[in-house]
Write a structure and sequence with these properties.
Rossmann fold, 265 residues, AB_hydrolase_1, alpha/beta, AB_hydrolase_fold, 11 helices, hydrolase, Alpha/beta hydrolase, hydrolase activity
Amino acid sequence: MERTIQKKLSVGGDSWVTVDVYGEPDAPGLVVVPGVMSDAHTWRHVAGAIDAWPSVVVVNRRGRAPSGPLTDPYSLRTEVEDLGVVLDEFDSTRALFGWSYGGLITLLTANDRPIHQVIAYEPVMQPFGRHALPDLKTAAETADWDRCVEIVNRRISGFSAAYVENLRADPDSWAILRRLSEPLYAELGALNATPPPDLMAQQAAQVDLIIGRRNRGTAPYGTSFDHVRQHIAHAGVHELPGQGHLAHLQAPAELGRLLNDLAAI
């Protein structure tokens, strides 16, 4: 599926979000919500692999260009309200898909409004990465984006020093990661600031949770996934073989095929 248009939508707090639309803009479709250290461009290969819905709308959440700033105050509620604006614009949406922090946003949004299907890949919830907040705060206040990238990969995601050095060895990719790390402290702070509701996705007719097989039962993503699952009694659980948290980068075609399969359930 090819991208057809990009739209700019005004949201609260003198900010805006852009959305990349693939396929038929006016047809019922899937809305994709990326998480932290990610943007709509990062999800282009997954969107291109999806054909179970006639349209795919990928949200570029506030805090990453060409969308507007996070603004103050900023909270999880801000993200839920922004997604509500997107759903009002694309009112024939049939399904929501969120990754990581975006997965939590979609699950909370389905408490506010009815949606046929919600799919979440390794959604995270409080407490997640709380231990890294003081160091992230210092790095953000000094605009030390190199340090922010190191913290999220080493102290939160648990990747090795060699993995981070491999990332740093590609100047273009590292520059993108630096840019995407700028809203990280605020986003992780918002994630940990508000206790989650006892139940999530209460107005979703169907909920499907996906975990990469490599993360099953392991911290931090597998354990947070299990925590989220306890709040959604009616969720189906699915594994993506051979993958961890970054399937959208490392196996976009496989992730796209799994989403196509889930649309048929």
